[in-house]
Here is the input.
Amino acid sequence: MTGPETSSVTGPVAGPLTGAVRVVLADDHPMFRYGLTAALGNASEVEIVAEAGDAAELLSIVERLQPQVALTDLTMPGPGGPAMIAELRARAPGTAVLVLTMHDDDETVLAALRADASGYLLKGAERDEIVRAILTVVEGGAVYGGGVARRVSELLTQRTSGPSDRIFAELTPREESVLALVAQGLGNHEIARRLGLSEKTVRNNLATVLAKLHLRDRAAAVAHARDAGLGATGPTR
Here is the structure.
């Protein structure tokens, strides 16, 4: 792993955890997997519980093991990219997806985040940065590698000008789902039940929504969402 890289973190930064974070690592280059597994093996906070060499294998392993984090490349044999991320989230809602890739173009980055990736790092990130990113996303935060952090900020604050089935382009689908249910007047417990999340994850997602939309509190989020037409029948994915 070469080249220092700083990160931008959105939402809560991970605090102390009990036990190592269970991670599945996916990349279609065996030597890269070997090197990364060896590097992360020295970090007591992380445990690599399985490896995958293609998208289908990753999906199968994640569905079976339900790890806390899937650390994955985007371009592997099989249904990779955003479609793979969306399928991972559907099969294992409790698994955070952390992308580790060489692709840094705007279209790929934004597509991954819209598919509900919790973080996006570039290959070349140092071991300590990857560990910090894993600990951040497992606590419900979001993290972007320094190479893409500025553009991510710009992309997430741009509103789409054309028709869309999404109202807030800044938010991931899950964040917009949380906001829609908040706007309907539901509490965190009910939102967590409907979306299959923990209440802590709901709180973390709401905190990220407030930060992205520059809102003060829950009441401001409700008003903002309803003004935009979200809340009466918002998305529930």
The first strand starts at residue 7 and ends at 10. Confidence is low (pLDDT under 50) at residues 1-6, 11-16, 159-164, 233-237. Residues 199-213 form the longest helix (15 residues).
